[in-house]
């Protein structure tokens, strides 16, 4: 019997990625929003397009920062290493705190903090400065000095940003390790950077349970001879093991410290932090971010993309353990004297609308979250938060993965009340700052598209050979000009830095993402290139098939992988999570396959659909397609529709429990 796939002609050349999904909806910025928007003049794009204009733009933005000594050269670009604001001296904590207090903003709230059990704290800029100085002095009292590396392994409590700012104040680069990571992951990161100090907590709360961080930190530190000191915040009060030669309670160590501390003058190119990002195979890469360019880049993008006003209450729902938290909970927002919300726990605990209760309580004006969270809320349904007053919201953001057009539209309609622009922001741990994004007072958005490169950012889409792909086609995303917050290397591994980012297309940064541009030049991110499927010689992005599935009313979430197929090379295998109220059946499976075929074409019709209650995700919420590929490959699967049995769910769960590392 002939299959659909056999009738599809092989692609003429497999050098690019197919452009299948068409999205016709557009959303112009509301007039009232435009009238008050910080960035409202479309000319900003033309102005920053030339080399001269882009340099003038960043030089201008750098004036918003306090420099201890002025920089003398904007950019020294010796491929693949950039230096920005050469010769400048500054201190980031002074820019995030002292400067605002000196300007009369000491009483302004820096963070509203909400603990998962319901406790809360408010920290003003003056208080945050005092706490940061105490901790800076405490670290100095332990002998921590400029250049020493400090590992931070903490829950989402105020002491986490305070610890980062204290490190920045004394010039000790921090290496924040997400609190959900294992002792092994922590030990590997401590060892790679030879951290001398670890800052942690007895524990933190997640879904009602205490996570015992100190126990994992002990396990890691016992294998890490570089660690001389450990500072422990008392959060849960649970008993902990104690090594008196090494361990210090935060509250005891900081209590007697003065509330002022001299900020260390840092060179623009001094290391601010390391943040490890998992590769698909080898050991995690220690991404290096430095001082001057990072601060200017994060502050500028935060101010313009989130349209920050003095009265905003901004809530980025990411964990500070990811780059999103570093750039858009701590450094960018504080540099802009923003009032932010930090929440310790799970957004749907103890009630499914916990997040909405918090947003209502603090009258949040801006929400910034991930597609995985949006799809989870979509699955619960909007009735869950109907009683919460979200009328204070005026802008919504998304980051971390391609957002399916349907999830985008749901976010806009039900959370944004059809009045808030949505900014879908593309960037990476490596880029340090948002690079592809709408400007909410200028850009007409299209659901699922991150729209255009930020002013001054030069991006491109190329084929296998490095030729530019014309509008309307898909290929690989590259960046063709440096930007201030870009990574400065992989810690201790020059060769891997060159090989990963700069060797595939010499002179251009290879992002590792598929991307297409439509006829109007809008950028549509298509997922990691490792995930692209090859069906009968057609390179098909998982993202587009997933979005087609999510556009069916029964589907809350979908993950698609390529499975070896004797005829077509790979065949499309889909995992589908249904919205509440829908039942899995062969008929629905057939319906979904037909739906994909209608929405984006026969070529992309999944060969098999498996209904599953769950998908394996990384700790930051990205679907682990690699794992799903293994599961799809290993199983003898007959029918076109399969209901995930307990065994396969267990396999998926068990394997995903191992996390990314
Ligand atoms: C990868 C980087 C940047 C903060 C969080 C993730 C994917 C990120 C988007 C977006 C499509 C996106 C890309 C990228 N990604 N944002 N708006 N649209 N894809 O940081 O863990 O370093 O991951 O996340 O694949 O390469 P990260």
**What is the CATH topology assignment of the largest domain?**
Rossmann fold
Biggest β-sheet, characterized?
Answer: 7 strands, mixed
Order of strands, widest sheet: 5-4-17-16-18-19-20
Tell me the structural class. alpha/beta
Measure the end-to-end span: 44 Å
Radius of gyration: 24 Å
Helical percent range?
25-40%
Fourth-level CATH superfamily of the largest domain: ANL, N-terminal domain
CATH architecture descriptor of the largest domain: 3-Layer(aba) Sandwich
Query: Mean of residue pLDDT?
Result: 93
> What small molecules does the structure contain?
5'-O-[(S)-butoxy(hydroxy)phosphoryl]adenosine
Please provide a written account of the structure.
- There is one protein chain.
- With 661 residues, the chain is of the alpha/beta class.
- The chain folds into two domains: 2-17 and 532-658, ANL, C-terminal domain (GMP Synthetase, Chain A, domain 3), CATH 3.30.300; 31-517, Rossmann fold (3-Layer(aba) Sandwich), CATH 3.40.50.
- Helices cover 30% and strands 22% of the residues.
- The strands form eight sheets. A seven-stranded mixed sheet has the order 5-4-17-16-18-19-20, with helices on both faces.
- β6 (150-153), α6 and β7 form a beta-alpha-beta unit.
- Residues 1-12 and 655-661 have low confidence and may be disordered.
- 5'-O-[(S)-butoxy(hydroxy)phosphoryl]adenosine binds at residues 277, 322-324, 399-402, 424-429, 450, 511-513, 525, 528, 620.
């Amino acid at each position: 019997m002939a299959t659909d796939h056999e009738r599809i002609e092989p692609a003429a050349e497999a050098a690019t990625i197919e452009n299948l999904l068409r999205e016709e909806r557009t959303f112009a910025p509301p007039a009232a929003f435009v009238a008050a928007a910080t960035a409202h003049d479309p000319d900003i794009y033309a102005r920053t397009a030339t080399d001269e204009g882009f340099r003038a733009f960043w030089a201008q933005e750098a004036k918003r920062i306090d420099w201890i000594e002025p920089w003398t050269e904007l950019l020294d670009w010796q491929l693949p290493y950039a230096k920005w604001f050469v010769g400048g001296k500054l201190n980031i904590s002074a820019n995030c705190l002292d400067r605002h207090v000196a300007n009369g903003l000491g009483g302004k709230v820096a963070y509203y903090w909400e603990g998962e059990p319901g406790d809360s704290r408010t920290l003003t800029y003056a208080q945050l400065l005092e706490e940061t100085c105490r901790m800076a002095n405490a670290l100095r009292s332990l002998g921590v000095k400029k250049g020493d590396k400090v590992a931070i392994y903490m829950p989402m409590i105020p002491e986490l940003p305070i610890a980062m700012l204290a490190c920045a104040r004394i010039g000790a680069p921090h290496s924040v390790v997400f609190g959900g990571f294992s002792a092994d992951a922590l030990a590997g990161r401590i060892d790679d950077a030879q951290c001398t100090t670890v800052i942690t907590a007895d524990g933190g709360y997640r879904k009602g349970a205490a996570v015992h961080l100190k126990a994992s930190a002990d396990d890691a530190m016992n294998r890490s001879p570089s660690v001389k000191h450990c500072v422990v915040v008392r959060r849960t009060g649970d008993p902990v093991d104690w090594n008196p030669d090494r361990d210090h309670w935060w509250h005891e160590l900081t209590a007697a410290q003065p509330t002022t501390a001299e900020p260390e003058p840092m060179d623009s190119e001094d290391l601010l932090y390391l943040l490890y990002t998992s590769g698909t195979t080898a050991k995690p890469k220690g991404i290096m971010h430095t001082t001057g360019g990072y601060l200017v880049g994060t502050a500028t993008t935060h101010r313009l993309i989130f349209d920050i006003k003095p009265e905003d209450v901004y809530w980025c729902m990411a964990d500070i353990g990811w780059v999103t938290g570093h750039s858009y909970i701590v450094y960018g927002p504080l540099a802009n004297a923003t009032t932010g919300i930090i929440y310790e726990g799970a957004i749907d605990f103890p009630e499914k609308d916990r997040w909405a209760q918090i947003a209502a309580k603090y009258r949040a004006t801006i929400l910034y979250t991930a597609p995985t969270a949006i799809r989870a809320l979509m699955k619960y349904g909007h009735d869950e938060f109907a009683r919460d007053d979200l009328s204070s919201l005026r802008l919504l953001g998304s980051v971390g993965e391609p957002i399916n057009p349907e999830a985008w539209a749901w976010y806009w309609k039900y959370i944004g009340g059809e009045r808030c622009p949505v900014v879908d922001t593309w960037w990476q741990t490596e880029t340090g700052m948002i690079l592809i994004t709408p400007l909410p007072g200028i850009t007409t958005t299209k659901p699922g598209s991150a729209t255009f490169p930020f002013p001054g950012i030069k991006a491109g889409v190329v084929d296998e050979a490095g030729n530019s792909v014309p509008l309307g086609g898909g290929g690989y995303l590259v960046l063709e000009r440096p930007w201030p917050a870009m990574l400065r290397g992989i810690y201790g591994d020059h060769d891997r830095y060159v090989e990963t980012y700069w060797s595939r297309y010499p002179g251009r940064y290879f992002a590792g993402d598929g991307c297409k541009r439509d006829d109007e030049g809008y950028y549509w991110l298509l997922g990691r290139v490792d995930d692209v499927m090859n069906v009968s010689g057609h390179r098909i992005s998982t993202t587009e098939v997933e979005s087609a599935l999510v556009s069916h009313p029964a589907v809350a979430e979908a993950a698609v992988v390529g499975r070896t197929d004797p005829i077509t090379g790979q065949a499309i295998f889909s995992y589908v999570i249904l919205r509440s109220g829908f039942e899995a059946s062969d008929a629905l499976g057939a319906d979904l396959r037909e739906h994909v075929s209608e929405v984006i074409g026969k070529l992309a019709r999944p060969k098999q659909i498996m209904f599953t209650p769950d998908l394996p995700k990384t700790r930051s919420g990205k679907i682990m397609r690699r794992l799903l590929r293994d599961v799809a490959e290993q199983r003898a699967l007959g029918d076109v529709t399969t209901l995930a049995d307990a065994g396969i769910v267990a396999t998926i769960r068990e394997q995903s429990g191992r996390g990314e590392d």
